[in-house]
Design brief:
Layout: E1 4-9, E2 15-21, E3 24-31, H1 44-66, E4 75-81, H2 85-102, E5 106-110, H3 111-117, E6 135-140, E7 145-152, E8 155-161, H4 167-177, H5 185-192, H6 215-231, H7 235-238, H8 240-266, E9 270-274, H9 281-294, E10 297-299, H10 310-323
Parallel strand pairs: 1-4, 4-5, 6-9, 9-10
Antiparallel strand pairs: 1-2, 2-3, 6-7, 7-8
Helix pairs in contact: 1-2, 3-10, 4-6, 4-8, 5-8, 8-9
């Protein structure tokens, strides 16, 4: 008998719904919130209000696009955390109500685990390859930067993490210094193709072991721009391509150097990347280069499964369903949630 999961993701500012059947994606819809661009970042209260307006039509369209009847849904999975509490409450409340109304299981999902398990989403008509266990995953997003040894679908060991800012946060904050709208990461990625990655040198903090640090880079970038702007007020506008290319090269180099070290220490050569920053073209190109050089077996999810999306919640919910990992109705969302 087929297992069909309705998945809901509302951890930040994107309202997403997806339908997964037996591990295969049937639909994955996302409604973004443009209003936050005006504020240079996500405003929690505005985000939760927008989720309330978006969640019903997004779920309705996801079910219709999947071509299934509502009575075919086996369980509803939702993001419990980490994320913005108000946003998480919207998704959690809807999932609870849907579970009670349809008399189907409720499945909580750890947003970070879901990013990792996005590697297991299957698409019909494609040659699907998934990692073997254990594999090493570099999880990079706006809020998290971690190196994870994935021993099974639900046994994951964090062997390295950021001590301060996440990689995505560094992109966005440095982009804001250059006058870019939120989110700045994709803009920097695009403009970096027009510049020289070796035009400027920025600091790479020395951190022992497999941990990361990006706050020093952010501060170095701030002072660098301040000094250059004193000499030439048009410095940023005249050097956008080189600034973006050099900044991106620095951040990516830090990430890849730690990944290389982690692979050497663990002996694991099956490598995956996950999280919103894994959509960065520079990171994808460099990790592919290193994979060929070091004979890694590399797994890079489609871009649509790297940013916040319900498909990754659905695949995690699917594996939880198979193991009978169901949630009670008194469950509440968590703003902080470890892998």
């Amino acid at each position: 008998m087929s297992v069909t999961i309705l998945a809901i993701e509302t951890s930040c500012d994107d309202t997403s719904a997806a339908v997964i059947r037996d591990g295969y994606i049937l639909s994955n819809l996302i409604a973004g919130q443009e209003i936050h661009r005006s504020y240079g970042g996500v405003v929690p209260e505005l985000a939760s209000r927008a989720h309330q307006a978006n969640i019903v039509p997004v779920i309705d369209q996801a079910i219709k696009k999947a071509g299934i009847g509502i009575d075919e849904i086996s369980a509803v999975a939702f993001t419990r955390g980490p994320g913005l509490l108000g946003s998480l409450l919207v998704g959690t409340s809807f999932a609870k109500g849907f579970s009670v109304a349809r008399k189907i299981p409720l499945i909580e999902v750890n947003h970070l685990q879901a990013h990792v398990l996005a590697h297991f989403i299957l698409e019909k008509g494609k040659e699907n390859q998934v990692p073997s266990m254990p594999f090493l995953c570099l999880l990079v997003s706006g809020g998290h930067t971690q190196l994870i040894v994935v021993k099974s679908h639900f046994e994951m060991e964090v062997i390295g993490h950021t001590l301060d800012d996440a990689a995505g946060e560094a992109f966005d904050k440095c982009g804001k210094l250059m006058g870019f709208p939120y989110p700045s990461g994709p803009i920097i990625d695009k403009l970096s193709t027009e510049g020289d990655p070796n035009a400027f040198r920025f600091s790479k903090p020395f951190v022992k072991g497999l941990d990361f640090s990006f706050s020093g880079l952010k501060t170095n970038f701030l002072y660098f721009l301040r000094d250059k702007m004193k000499e030439n007020p048009e410095f940023i506008s005249e050097n956008k391509g080189d600034l973006c290319a050099s900044l991106q090269h620095t951040i990516i180099s830090i990430l890849i150097s730690k990944l290389i070290k982690a692979s050497a220490q663990t002996g694991i050569t099956e490598i995956g990347i996950a999280g919103g920053v894994s959509a960065n073209s520079g990171l994808r190109n460099l990790i592919k280069h290193e994979a060929l050089k070091r004979k890694w077996k590399l797994f890079v999810p489609p871009v649509s499964y790297t940013t916040d999306n319900a498909a990754m919640i659905g695949i995690t919910g699917y594996y939880k369903y198979l193991r009978g990992y169901f949630s009670r109705q008194d469950i509440s969302p968590l703003a902080r949630f470890e892998v």
